[in-house]
């Protein structure tokens, strides 16, 4: 998917190399990919959703795939914040920062696509404490 998106940006409008790369990527990124919980799959599927939205011009497929990717990132726990009391940077801090960046690189385009396409955004997460839930009922 990286090659497909990069080829689209780097080539002229009459060059269709991105279609070759896209078709190769779709051979590996099928519906079963949604069951593979890892960062690389999340990133590849997010790129695929963006490709569907911007270049293939299939917005329904794009927003459906992006919503599935958002759910996959939640299943991976990327929505959680990890706070460390240390000021030094180690491998775990770098991993948590990478996970945070992947999370936001999924949330922002998903909310943007919902806004542009006039669709409701389902990725909102709100916290409710017990007191406010009790008062509301």
Provide a brief overview of the structure:
With 137 residues, this protein is an all-alpha fold. The protein has six helices and no strands.
Structure description:
By secondary structure, this protein is mainly α. The chain has a domain at 37-124: Methane Monooxygenase Hydroxylase, Chain G, domain 1, CATH 1.20.58. Helix content is 66%, strand content 0%. It contains 6 helices and no strands. It has helices at 2-10, 17-28, 39-56, 59-75, 91-117, 130-136. α1 runs antiparallel to α2 (17-28), α3 runs parallel beside α5 and α4 (59-75) runs antiparallel to α5 (91-117). The N and C termini lie far apart (48 Å). The model is unreliable at 126-137 (pLDDT under 50).
Gyration radius over CA: 18 Å
DSSP helix count? 6
- In CATH terms, what is the fold-level topology of the domain at 37-124? Methane Monooxygenase Hydroxylase, Chain G, domain 1
Percent strand: under 5%
Q: Report the principal-axis shape.
A: globular
Q: What is the CATH-assigned architecture of the domain at 37-124?
A: Up-down Bundle
Distance between the termini: 48 Å
Biggest sheet record: none
What is the β-strand count?
0
Structural class: mainly alpha
Low-confidence stretches: 126-137
| Percentage of residues in helical conformation | 55-70%
Average pLDDT taken over every residue: 77
Order of helices and strands: HHHHHH
CATH class of the domain at 37-124: Mainly Alpha
């Amino acid at each position: 998917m990286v090659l497909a998106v990069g080829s689209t940006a780097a080539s002229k409008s009459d060059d269709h190399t991105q279609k070759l790369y896209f078709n190769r990527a779709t051979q590996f990124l099928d519906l079963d990919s949604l069951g593979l919980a890892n960062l690389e799959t999340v990133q590849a599927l997010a790129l695929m959703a963006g490709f569907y939205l911007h270049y293939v011009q299939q917005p329904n497929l794009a927003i459906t795939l992006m919503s599935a990717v958002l759910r996959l990132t939640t299943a991976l726990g990327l929505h959680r914040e990890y706070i460390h009391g240390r000021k030094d940077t180690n491998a775990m801090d770098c991993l948590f920062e990478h996970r945070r960046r992947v999370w936001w690189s999924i949330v922002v385009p998903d909310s943007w696509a919902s806004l542009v396409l006039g669709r409701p955004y389902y990725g909102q997460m709100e916290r409710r404490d017990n007191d406010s839930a009790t008062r509301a009922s």
